[in-house]
Specification:
The structure is a homodimer.
Chain A: E1 2-7, E2 22-26, H1 31-40, E3 45-48, H2 52-57, E4 64-69, E5 72-73, E6 95-99, H3 103-108, E7 115-119, H4 124-132, E8 138-142, H5 151-163, E9 168-169, H6 173-185, H7 189-193, H8 197-203, H9 208-214, E10 224-227, E11 230-233
Parallel strand pairs in A: 1-8, 1-9, 2-7, 2-8, 3-6, 4-6
Antiparallel strand pairs in A: 3-11, 4-5, 7-10, 10-11
Helix pairs in contact in A: 5-6
Chain lengths: ~230, ~230
């Protein structure tokens, strides 16, 4: 059996061995959910940036630019970090440059892996099928919140570990814990998450429709993959 | 309501604010369980050390010396990290100097807190009563395993968060997750943990009786507290 393990924060990723593994980067609220929404709605590629400045500069190279800090659209950007903004093929055919608080960092810290995927609930089953078709062990890299454990990324990790159980063992402590937590709370994701501090912070931003989208399973049949620092739909 | 939060690793403790909080340091397999066993069996005080050398030197000052690295007794030490070695008042009346892989680090990184307690299942209810008698918020600091999340420390944290629910809210994501996990798996701690990689490593050291001791609830009515870098029974 292949193995699945979870890293709960980019601050802990140096303690995990990435070599030969497929890393799935997760930032459910909202960076990786937004990437999946954008690609499923016709965005042709996504470049991610750590700094606002670098990302903003891509506007002059014909990119649509999306920038978010602490949950709100950053100054001078066309878009923030809302997945529903991309629905109905709103920006189909365009290239996107994106920077977010936690998600971009997790992607850049995953370099060195065999492959890097982007994980979100709306394409969970597609990601599962892809991982099952490959021989590599899986490491789920949660973006967390300012370096700390967060509940929604961890629950996605548990859902993925659970969905992989026919082919991948969850002996690693984090995977075992989150698989069990998903078994208990997976039927009621939104209710369970609504008790959490991060979800409460998001509710303050009036993004109820984003939260609903981010927790919706299996809308899309494709996988989001990072290649040469560009995220594409495969 | 007071708050309870969980830090899953000493590598993440810098992201938490310790000021004004009571920190409960947890290293279930086996440092904090061993401290509680030792104090409950007549050890008068415990000094903890990061380095083997400093700890070994305490032998010439009349201390019983206990040293463990990677699960086994270190060279030149009278004791390793086995809680059952202290039972039946085996070393009653003596002072203990101790160094362990993960536990000592978590204690030293908890400096700055309002108070520091040592947590273990054998005195869980006593610790709960003590925390409920105080006005401070609680931060549970899991020693983890080589900086990573581990299951037994996290489950203790969940048990403590659950036991405190009449007086302390678990809105913080880690506390919410582990409280729910303990609700699901708390009736079967040993069975659930036996699937985990760290517990499997311990099984290789033939310490079944240690594991049983470490997972036994409420043998002792007192609390272990760190004051001026010395752990005492109060």
């Amino acid at each position: 059996m292949r193995q699945v393990e979870i890293c709960f924060s980019p601050e802990l990723i140096h303690l995990h061995d990435l070599e030969g593994k497929i890393v799935v980067v997760v930032d459910i609220f909202r960076a990786t959910s937004t990437m999946v929404a954008a690609l499923a709605n016709g965005i042709t590629e996504i470049k991610t940036f750590a700094s606002l400045e670098e990302c903003r500069d891509m506007g002059s190279e014909g990119y649509l630019i999306a920038g978010e800090r602490n949950g709100v659209t950053a100054e001078g950007f066309q878009l923030g970090n809302s997945p529903v903004a991309y629905l109905n093929n709103q920006y189909a055919g365009q290239k996107l440059a994106m920077t977010t608080t936690n998600g971009t960092l997790a992607i850049s810290k995953s370099q060195g892996a065999y492959e890097i995927l982007i994980g979100a609930f709306p394409n969970l089953s597609a990601t599962v099928s892809y991982l099952q078709s490959r021989d590599q062990d899986v490491l789920i890299h949660c973006a967390g919140w300012k370096g700390r454990f967060n509940l929604e990324d961890s629950l996605y990790a548990g859902a993925l570990a659970k969905s992989l159980e026919a082919t991948h063992t969850s002996e690693e402590d984090g995977a075992l814990a989150m698989k069990a937590l998903f078994e208990k709370e997976g039927h009621n994701l939104k209710g369970f998450l609504s008790q959490a501090s991060h979800a409460k912070r998001l509710q303050n931003h009036n993004i109820e429709s984003d939260i609903d989208f981010c927790l919706t399973l299996d809308l899309y049949p494709s996988v989001a993959k990072v290649e040469s620092e560009v995220v594409k739909w495969i």
